[in-house]
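Hi R.,

Here's the chain you asked about this morning:
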Amino acid sequence: MDIGWGCSANPDVRDAMAAWGYGQIDPDLPQDYENCVCLGAFEDGKLIGCVIFNNYDISAKTIEFTMAATSRRWVNFRLLEEMRRYVFDDLGLQLLITKTKERNKHISRMLKSYGFSEYLIPRLFGENEGGLIFTLTKEQAENSKIGRRGKRDLITETP
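And the predicted structure, written out as tokens:
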């Protein structure tokens, strides 16, 4: 599996990745391509999963993300570490945020295993559908199993 970025440096790639991701979730979602950055997972050159970063708040040092995939195999250590480094190292943010429907147990398990905190919000997705907001602080990311492994991978031994 390969990973790749779509951003303002390659807007055609970014727009295609965002359109694919939003289309997987709900084609009627608002799609603000110019203010997003995408991280995609590719298998045999085909996009199988995408993280769309948006709602960047420089003063609060936060960013939100949305995920979509056609395969559960798309999330691996390398992709999660790339997300962590982008948000906390490259952008210097302090909080990563996402939301999902309460019934989405797979995503809930995955995010909790990475160290996210979970908050149940009744009616977040309408009168009859609760939602979950997940947050990950810089410290939670660094202390997660994946964050600790990423730090080890960056250490180089001297001969």
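Confidence is low (pLDDT under 50) at residues 154-159.

Let me know if you need anything else.
M.
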